[in-house]
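Supplementary Text 2. Reproducibility record for the structural model of the 255-residue chain.

All settings were left at their defaults, and a single model was retained for analysis rather than an ensemble. We include the record here because the model underlies the residue-level annotations in Supplementary Table 4.
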Amino acid sequence: MEQRTVRVAAGAGIVLALALAGSAVGLAATTGAPAPQAAPPGCSSSAPKLTVQGTGEASAAPNLLTVAVDIAVTEPSAQVSLADDNSKASAVTTALETGGVLSKDIQTSNVSIQPNYNLAGDVTGYQMTNTITAKLRDFSKAGAIVDALTSAAGNATRIDSMTFSIEDPRAIEDQARTDAVSQAVSHAKSMAAAAGERLGPVCSLADNSTSPSPGFNDESAAPSGAAAAVPLEPGTQQVSAQITMVYALEQPARS
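Retained model, structure tokens:
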């Protein structure tokens, strides 16, 4: 009789243990799953909405002048052409470094050497070209540096471009975006009030801005053999931003 009682108690204990374990698993599964995020009220696909755009602008003085110098020489042989070009490129680089341009801000690119032919198809010489690009940060010396580098290699040099820019435009871009958002909010408030509606939450906010274009680009600013330092005026660079906002609309309470 006692043996039967023990067996029943043990079975009940197992059932109870399994029930408690199942409850624990269910509780863990319930508490472990993240709660679903509810969509903002009024932002459903069928709810009335107001879409507005805002345009903002900001300006700042450039702090960088990028100068690209083309060097081209033509000699009877490829070896002589290479030596001549190297000599003139070294003279341009020396002029830049003497003017205070750091070596890390000087780069050579677009190196090429090609044969020249006459009408009979014979090689008459070899032309070698390359481009030296330099970043100038001290604008007070920029004009004198441009004059010096054009004189350094004579008629073999040509100023391809000079571009003023802001080295790190992120701060001014954020100012333009802030201005654009403020304008969009102002437009939304006035439009909702005129329509007898009330603005609800913002359903979406999109940035439609594009990268700013260079503020200055002049290929003829420094002709070879200039007699005096080239006058350079950086002016200001303007950045614009455009955003699109979508508001939910809520009808004002009626009395």
